[in-house]
User: What shape does this take?
Amino acid sequence: MSKKDLKLKFDELSSVIGTFKGLEIEVGRIFDDEWEEPMGPTPFPSVGTLRNWDRKLLERYKPFYMPFCDLCCLCTFGKCDLTGDKRGACGIDMAGQQSRIVLIACCIGASTHTAHARHMLDHLLEEFGRNAPLEVALNTGVEAPNIRLVCGIRPKTLRDLEDALDYVETQLVQLMAAAHTGQEGDNIDFESKAFHAGMLDHVAMEVADISQISTLGLPKGDPEAPMTELGYGSIDVSKPVIMCIGHNVLPSVDIIDYLMENKLFGEVEIGGLCCTAHDMSRYDKRSKVIGPISWQLRFIRAGIPDLIVVDEQCLRTDIMIEARKLGVPVIATSEKSCLGLPDRTHDDPDAIVRDLASGAVDGVLIIDPKKVGEVTVKTVLEVAPKRAGKKSFSLDELSELANSCRLCMECVRACPNNLPIVEAMQAAKEGDYSPFAALNDLCVGCARCESACPVDLPIISMITKANEPANLLEKFPMRVGRGAIQDTEIREVGQPIVFGEIPGVVAMVGCANYPAGGGDVARITEEFLKRRFIVVTSGCSAMNIAMTRDEEGLNLYEKYSGHFDAGGLVNVGSCVSNSHITGAAIKIANIFAKRNLRGNYEEIADYIYNRVGAVGVAWGAMSQKAASIAAGCWRLGIPVVVGPHGAKYRRMLLGRKDKEEDWIVYNARDGEEVYVGPAPEHLFYAAETVEEAIVMITKLTMRPNDTAKGRAVKLTHYIDLYKRYYGTMPDDLHLYVRKITDVPFTMRDEIMVALEEKDWSEEKIAIPDPTLLDRMVRRRS
Amino acid sequence: MSQKMTLGQTAEIAGPKKAFIIPKPEVVASMIKRAKRPLLVVGSESAKTMTSDGVLVDTAIRLIGKMTVAATGHLVSEFLKRDVQGVHSISLMNLGDRLRDPLWGGFDGEGQYDLVVFAGFPYYLEWLVLNGLKSFAMDLRTISLTRSYQPNASWSLGSMKVDEWKEVLDKIASTLMEEN
Assistant: This one.
């Protein structure tokens, strides 16, 4: 809570020390004293402030680089070959270059959320005023845990969020500067800066989400947030269909408002793709969630939308080409994504509608959300009747297209998942479309196959058409994003999480670049829900979780509650809602453990790392935003598991469980340095298979602070899952069983055999009050 | 079926240092035989990649005793289902991390491996790990037995048709079995 730009001007001021004429005093920022919590050591940390903390983590979890490119081509000295021990013209080596790219990726991701937050905040300030109060969640006093922790301020109004965002923007510029040729050269320092970018990202995401929650009437941490409909089948194609794509809900809000004000909601369908869809459904559950990002092209090609509105992030950059093919007008609404369209922001709405409806222009840029609302609705009502016959694509045409396939295999080469497209082509030539239909759930929708095809076959359209009957029936319930976790929920579960009795918090987040379809996300989720973990989710993953039904026809949102409690499935919302996931971990340290948050990053991260069994899972991570979100988790000591495509982020942060010296902590009770075992083993890890991921996630929930009961619960799950998928006992139990009381009773005999084979003894692994921070030692023995 | 071979994946362009193409299967057998501590690593696709022995898991089983065999992902279960013991289970990330450490003792504590043979992985995943080893385990020699050329190995099979690949793999295994 602060005031900026205080100016005092005195024409003449007399005092005991003299008389001053023309005196001006300016103060950049004044912090008020209403917040009794003492300021911690690191408010508004600069790029290097938390470097020592980062280095502690990076000493344990050393980067393993897998270069995606051996060259550097960022300056005119290059290209420079960095293979092996070579160095580039600037002196950088391969490790430095890979970590530099990681930093750049994290800066892109964090900048994207920050720009989103800035757009959101500026708009809301204008609409609701500087003093609009922040009302983030029911039963909640800690409204902005990331901002409190990082910035050391307690925001109360929209205006206060500007301080946090100003800080983030300033820091991001510093970080990008570090990536310039001839700046940073050490890979570990690059990694530390990537962590910094991640931390900033969570502040920016928090700004974006709590500002929209507070002003737009989005659910305020409600576990019983309403259900909305997801899937192709949720769209009534007999009505005019508006499709909104992206992540920034502002234009969609005004479309919904216009529909409501003009009593048109029942006459027009409005659906969204990607995170805009989440936030639209949070704003009004009657708006439909069409699906995750991978459905973007398919849904357009299906001919269903009569008008496309794009805002920002994760858009197909060729969307104008696609829309033109189908005669669908496009309205771009963000300066970040103008798509080459004419700026009609200041034109008469009816003139814009006339031009779009007549086809005089195929798209427009309108920056004013209110005008977007009016133009969108009026246009779709005019365009839809004209497009009525364009919603079909015949199976005969599919067969004809397949006949022109040369079976060259270029599509398979281009496919990230080597899907059997050629086999589908061959079958389609003979009138069997089922192999094409089978690709529907596996395809990530990237269309690289089409780019590679020498005869320009519309392979995505062919897949979509073949699966059309099933697609049109697909309709799933999804609990809309609830936003933050309530303080009262944290009070209930803080102790069982920290003691390990709730075995862990698993965050299923991120994009839809899955190696074998979105069903795997639902499978992982259900495995942990059945085992009474808390599962939180957001973004595309939250959508894919909805898209699997059991034999009784129920999906996971119908089977599990939305409470942040054991066995709860908590959809927090869109990408920017990921800040509530780290926020929950931070609040556990604050609300349950009474640790001060204010500018106290290291201590809270140390607490989370050693005590809170949280694991992030981004099975289909694709974007730079996913990279920066993950980086924010790493700095807080939260491990992240990605799918095999996640290896393309080109570096992992891996612990070595075989190196005892890497797993020493201080016992805060007496300062003794003790071995606690490799928990958690990794900080960033790509799993090759779903089964490997499930087992690793379970193992990564273990923390040095687990009580015997808690560790026994976690070991039970770890051993049970390992045996199921690997067919044998884990070979590292001797590193995780600290005392005989850790051994799960029902598995005692086989565990003791395994421990004896490894010469396990009770004396080796300590159960201290663990900390990596020397200053947290309360008393030296 | 296609008359053209599947050549890896689009845009998986090699860097300046590229794998030598293995001219004939006997060369692989000879390299393995000459290595002091050879390691065969089979990946998650080995349970569904057909070979003349059945699947790649079955071919790997033939080689147990000729070299240390490790399975990544949860593939070890496929060996155990066949009542085959002695195959080491390690994740691909953990293995890559250890192979770059010259002080790693290996599965038996006897020291780092000098030749590692890869087979049965998603193409891009093997591509990445091999590239990590190319730059950060420069003393390690790697061989890729993938059916598509893997440029980041030290040595790789060239891209070939399925039947040809099965023959090559069988020849490598047979040669190793013959030569004691």
Q: What stands out?
A: The mean pLDDT of chain B is 93. Chain B touches chain A through 45 residues (CB under 8 Å).
